[in-house]
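Methods — Computational structure assignment.
A single polypeptide chain was analysed. Its primary sequence is given first, followed by the predicted tertiary structure written as structure tokens.
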Amino acid sequence: MLILAFDTATDVATSALVDDGDLIGERFSAPKTMLEDVDELLREVGLQPSDVDALAVGTGPGSFTGTRIGLAVARGLALALGVPAAGVSTLDTLAAGAPGAIPLIDAKRGEVFVPGPLATRPESLALEPGTTAVGDGARRHREVLEGLGLVVPADDDERHAVRGRFLAELAREFGPADAIEPLYVRAPDADKVLT
């Protein structure tokens, strides 16, 4: 089964094509260019959109806008291609690429998203010294985390990236894309005021 997997919940979006468990192509970019990247990825490996059998999409937590972009792309592609989709936690995908490490996604406002999922201040993490922390939240709060005795790999270490190939591996229950729910963890910053 050819799975097109993508996640846009962090500042660096990932897209990958995985055929029966084998990675055949992967790209990294900005979330806003996801459709263009998917098209280029398919062309690079000589495939057409109609060759895709299923989609796997990251559900967050992460950027509200980025998560919405990924879900909108999944819903549009699933409808256009007539394929099922599965949602996978961005934290779970990040953890799959760094076994034994704690995944941390930048939650802005001086916080990180951690497994649970929940948002917390990095200085309040109660982890064993020597624990490895990965993700854009670990990179952003390196100084605080290292002060707690955690190990944060170099910024260019691939364990910090959400990888599409792990997203495809973790996808389990495929169904209608419009049934996939985002993991926002907290309420949006903006409130709607009705008069």
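Note: Strands lie at 2-7, 13-19, 22-29, 54-58, 85-88, 102-103, 105-106, 112-114, 118-120, 133-134.
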